[in-house]
Amino acid sequence: MLNFIYVSLYFYRFHQQQSFAMPLAEKPIEEERNVPLPTPESSRLLIKSGKKELILNISEVMGAFVTDGICWVVTTEGKKLIVDCSLDYLEEASKTGNFFRANRQLILSRILVKSIHSDTYGKIKVVLKEGSGVSGEIFVSRTKAAEFRKWIKTEIAFHG
User: Fold this and answer.
1) Any idea what the CATH number is for the domain that residue 134 is in?
2) Residue 73 and residue 81: Cα distance in Å, rounded?
3) End-to-end alpha carbon distance in the chain
4) For the chain, give me the number of helices (H) and strands (E)?
5) Does 1 fall in a domain?
6) Which residues are bridge partners to 8 per DSSP?
7) Is the four-CA dihedral 158, 100, 135, 145 of positive or negative sign?
8) pLDDT tens across 76-102, in order?
């Protein structure tokens, strides 16, 4: 009888760990928040902020970041909004080419970048514009460095 209890507890805990360990990437993003993703032609983003649903033009978003498990969106007006969605959702929703996923904590727009510098081991140090509500500098890993340079040069080619 005692063995039956131990085995049952083992399988119960194992099942709990498996359900918590399931990565969010396996779930379709549309199901994550029940908010429809914008179409590529769309230039607006529906964001839940508390009890409100805000419609932001993608051109109004400077970036998004996560701090202590809370996802924030920074607008061009300097407002920081707590949003009820993940960076993965925002990354998928903003596939316009105006945003870059710099690391696990930050998605940035070209508006936010002040300058870039090569760093050790192929990494890139990105200095962000002041007053944006995001820390002064971040690092882009060497695995994303080439993609970042291509992304930033695309903007320069359009406005250069």
Assistant:
1) 2.40.50.1020
2) 5
3) 77
4) 4, 10
5) no
6) none
7) negative
8) 888 888 887 788 888 887 777 788 999
